[in-house]
Design goal:
CATH architecture: Alpha Horseshoe
Structural class: mainly alpha
CATH class: Mainly Alpha
Order of helices and strands: HHHHHHHHHHHHHH
Helix content: 55-70%
Number of domains: 1
Distance between the termini: 32 Å
Number of helices: 14
CATH superfamily: Tetratricopeptide repeat domain
Radius of gyration: 18 Å
Shape: globular
Number of strands: 0
Amino acid sequence: MDEATLTTLAFGDPPAADDLRRPFGVRPESTPRHRLLAAIVLGAHGHYAAATTVLDRLRRERDPVVASLAASTLASHRRQLGGHTAARKLDGAALLTAGFAEGSGGSGGFGGSEPGIAGSDAADADGLDLVGARADALLGLAADNLALGRIDAARRLAVRAARVDRRWRAAVRCGWVAAEIELADGQAAAAVAPARRALEIARARGARRHAVKSAIVLGVALSAAGEPGALDLVVTAVEETEKYELHSLSWVATRVAADLDAGHAEEYRFRSQQVLHPVLQQADPCVMQIARASPWVPAEAG
């Protein structure tokens, strides 16, 4: 599969699952960027073991951009199943690899002077460069600290990330983390604006997977704030995750839908288990261990 197609699958508007049935391999001779994109796509579809195999190798690359983004991506897979302690170690390693410098946060981060993957001198639109790697690591650390109850630390890290990179992907992820911080702090009304902004940016970019997650985050925020529209957003997100086989989000969307729609709660919980069970059966040992210990993952799913 060519790099342009992988980029679309990772950050764009992918075809429906029925139109994308041919498997793709990750050849050792592929470029680091190609392998990283492939791992992102594998993770989005819940193929955690295959993604881990690729990312573990990329973490040992000499290019700090590749190594940092690989660690951050692997951390996100751990975090999706509640493995925040394991994720924090990886995010910390990602930040250490990318460095702590902060730029102006413009469209090019550092005016295009920072290297991208494979030595590119131009800023990468999707943030696959040194500036984006720093933002990813900081946002990952913010989410990790938030889940571990360190709200003040999470706020500081999220603010730093927002200063580092203002491009679309970082802005969307900043919106997620900002909303989650406000929800954790008991400020549900304040969570709505960043979640809504994240959805607007993702939709404007045509980034379907990011839009789906943004809709889930906004749905949770609206529900917590007592505002209308939450269930419609989440039900649509469920349909999108199933249509595009975004298994990493599908089980989450159905669990949220179960919380919002008491009349169909059992149906949504069953659908969540249907997705999560095969994902865990194909996961690597680390993910399985995290899932078994995670309060987020239903015991019957494994």
